[in-house]
């Protein structure tokens, strides 16, 4: 298994191109199952999760063709892919494939909507809590699906087709909203989603579905209305920039000090995180092609944050912000309200000298004057990158093991960072 080695203490200076968002690219790829025609997606990131989903979709019958790079895109990013699901050849999404990532479970919705049946293994994904699927299944049942759980698989049927309905989510769920959007687009009649997720990736999917002939109004708000149509056609869509990647690098620059332009990053997707980084002591401004993050000289101030659904502070940046706070001049409280077990990075940050105490759903971080390099282990995607941020500021060498977690969601991380002056290298594993 590959490792990442970092020698800390270098300021970051330069430009980091922000890739297409993993959490938008995945549902967009899945939407290709809704039509016989070709869906073209631009600005696709090159990530392990994308490759894994490509395998799953190919198994269902999707022809996946990589076309090339977006005009003007940096050399290794922004690919264009064509996905064509002329026929669905297999309605099963097997355990071996789905257990690796959460989003793959969402294929259930387009398969049900298009051909009335699906058999999908219960999902995997980052180990950050129990991550039930009750609300996802509730949404499909409201639309008329019959659902059974058999030997670890969700077996769903809607032989007469799905029918529009009112769906009230008792808790905001990104995956539930994605699935409901896809299924309701091909259901008979009108569907209304209440307490829907408002994340930018929801808006991105809705825009793509509308470009394919769906009739969705209100995406980005808590109530979304979908008028079902009898079929969708092909379409074209550019994946929105990754706000979590952008927020992560903003926090890295705040940690090391320096001056970096995050090209392609959008402030409107990231306001709560930008506010927190500013309060911590970095300057963040909109530049011609993205966001500029600067911290010179001044120390870091402690800042309390509380994760919550968009537009609040994202849970996917909680670990990274905690890493930043390990060097603040004082005590901060970081509260996680979305996932009950998303503090796996705490014990690894402690290896680098961080002083963090857990109190229920909060972490109390007492800033340390110095972090020291050590061997650490990546436990999940965002936890791993929090170790990278800490390693960039730690004295001496930090080695991060189990880098495959990072590869799920960060494209060319070591190249992007070393291009800005960090001493970061990937060491290929022998196994
Ligand atoms: C691929 C992808 O886009 N993943 C993101 C997505 O995950 P994902 O879509 O899995 O997260 P959800 O928004 O569904 O989960 C939010 C909360 O609802 C709970 N819940 C969810 C479904 C359900 O049926 N029952 C239930 O109780 C979850 O346990 C969690 O406590 O949104 C999360 C919250 O922003 C992000 O951290 C993930 O990066
Ligand atoms: C939790 C994440 O991903 P997933 O939902 O795929 O586990 C994430 O992207 O931070």
How would you characterize the overall build of this protein?
The active site is at residue 126. Its EC number is 2.5.1.7. GO terms for molecular function: UDP-N-acetylglucosamine 1-carboxyvinyltransferase activity. The longest helix has 14 residues, at 243-256. This protein folds into two domains: 3-19 and 241-427, Enolpyruvate transferase domain (UDP-n-acetylglucosamine1-carboxyvinyl-transferase, Chain); 22-238, Enolpyruvate transferase domain (UDP-n-acetylglucosamine1-carboxyvinyl-transferase, Chain). It is elongated. By secondary structure, it is α/β, with parallel strands linked by helices. The model has no long low-confidence stretch (mean pLDDT 95). The chain is 31% helix and 26% strand. The protein has a four-stranded mixed beta sheet with strand order 22-23-1-24. It has 14 helices and 24 strands. It binds uridine-diphosphate-N-acetylglucosamine and phosphoenolpyruvate (PEP). The site of uridine-diphosphate-N-acetylglucosamine has 21 residues, from helix 1, helix 5 and helix 6. Residues 23, 101-103, 125-126, 128, 316, 381-382, 409 line the site of phosphoenolpyruvate.
Q: What is the second-level CATH architecture of the largest domain?
A: Alpha-beta prism
What is the spatial order of strands in the main beta sheet?
22-23-1-24
CATH C-level category of the largest domain: Alpha Beta
How big is the Rg? Answer: 21 Å
The proportion of residues forming helix, as a percent range, comes to 25-40%
Give me the secondary-structure category.
alpha/beta
Modified residues (2-(S-cysteinyl)pyruvic acid O-phosphothioketal): 126
Binding site for phosphoenolpyruvate: 22-23
GO molecular function: UDP-N-acetylglucosamine 1-carboxyvinyltransferase activity
Family: Belongs to the EPSP synthase family. MurA subfamily.
């Amino acid at each position: 298994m590959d490792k990442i080695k970092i020698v800390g203490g270098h300021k970051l200076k330069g430009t980091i191109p922000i890739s297409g968002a993993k959490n938008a690219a995945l549902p967009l790829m899945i939407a290709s199952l809704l039509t016989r025609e070709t869906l073209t997606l631009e600005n696709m990131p090159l990530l392990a999760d994308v490759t894994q989903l490509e395998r799953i979709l190919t198994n269902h019958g999707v022809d996946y063709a990589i076309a090339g790079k977006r005009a003007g895109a940096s050399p290794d990013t922004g690919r264009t892919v064509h996905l064509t699901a002329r026929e669905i050849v297999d309605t099963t999404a097997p355990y071996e494939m789905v257990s690796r990532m959460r989003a793959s479970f969402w294929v259930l919705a387009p398969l049900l909507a298009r051909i009335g049946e699906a058999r999908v293994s219960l999902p995997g994904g980052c180990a950050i809590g129990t991550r039930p699927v009750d609300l996802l299944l509730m949404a499909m049942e409201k639309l008329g699906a019959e659902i059974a759980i058999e030997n670890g698989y969700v077996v769903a049927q809607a032989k007469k087709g799905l029918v529009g309905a009112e769906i009230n989510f008792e808790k905001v769920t990104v995956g539930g909203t994605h699935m409901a959007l896809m299924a309701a687009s091909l259901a008979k009649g009108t569907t209304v989603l209440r307490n829907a997720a408002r994340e930018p990736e929801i808006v991105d999917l809705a825009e793509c579905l509308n470009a394919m002939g769906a009739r969705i109004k209100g995406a980005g708000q808590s109530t979304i209305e979908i008028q079902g149509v009898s079929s969708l056609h092909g379409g074209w869509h550019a994946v929105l920039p990754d706000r979590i990647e952008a927020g992560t690098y903003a926090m890295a620059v705040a940690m090391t000090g320096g001056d970096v332009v995050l090209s392609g990053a959008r402030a409107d997707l990231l306001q709560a995180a930008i506010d927190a980084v500013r309060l911590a002591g970095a300057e963040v401004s909109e530049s011609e092609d993205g966001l500029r993050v600067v911290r010179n000289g001044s120390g870091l101030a402690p800042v309390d944050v509380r994760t919550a659904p968009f537009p609040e502070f994202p849970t996917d940046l909680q670990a990274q912000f905690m890493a930043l706070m390990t060097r603040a001049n004082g005590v901060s409280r970081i509260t996680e309200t979305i996932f009950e077990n998303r503090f796996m990075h705490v014990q690894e940050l402690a290896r680098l000298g961080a002083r963090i105490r857990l109190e229920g759903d909060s972490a109390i971080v007492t800033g340390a004057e110095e972090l020291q390099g050590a061997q650490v282990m990546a436990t999940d995607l965002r936890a791993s990158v929090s170790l990278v941020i800490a390693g960039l500021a730690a004295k001496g060498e930090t080695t991060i093991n189990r880098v495959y977690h990072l590869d799920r969601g960060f494209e060319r991380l070591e190249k992007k960072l070393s291009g800005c002056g960090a001493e970061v290298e990937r060491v290929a594993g022998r196994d």
